[in-house]
Each structure stands twice: as C-alpha cells, then as structure tokens.
C-alpha cells in the first residue's frame, strides 16, 4: 500500500497506552441500552431482565440473572 510506512507483522508503535482491561469501558454498550424499557419475555420474576445489564466494573457479578419459564 503506497504511503503506508509500517508493517503489521509485529509491534505497532502507535498502539494505545490503555490496558486491555480498560478497553471494556471504552467500548461498553451499557450506556446505549435503555434499561427502563427493556422487555424480557417468559421471565419468572417480572422485570428481572432489566437487572442483567450492568456497567463494566460489575461485569463479573453473577447474583442477578433471568430465570425463564420453559414450556414443554
């Protein structure tokens, strides 16, 4: 490619200074979700679907979940 001054085979000198764990915050969809209007079909506990969307820093918390009604 003309005008392109470095290869992509190794370390790129203009890489971000951010640590990989910090990148989740930068690309989080949490801020884009309208949690007040989330609708979850077949949930056992009403409005529990809203609770599973959480900010990056709480991503490892597993105490909130959606239990669904299964039809046989």
UniProtKB/TrEMBL annotation:
PROSITE patterns named among the record's database cross-references: PITH
Disordered: region residues: 1-20
Gene3D superfamilies: PITH domain
Domain PITH: 18-72
Position of the signal peptide: none
Domain of life of the native organism: Eukaryota
GO CC entries: cytoplasm
Pfam families registered for this protein in UniProt: PITH
Name of protein: PITH domain-containing protein
Organism (species): Araneus ventricosus (Orbweaver spider)
Source species taxonomy: Eukaryota, Metazoa, Ecdysozoa, Arthropoda, Chelicerata
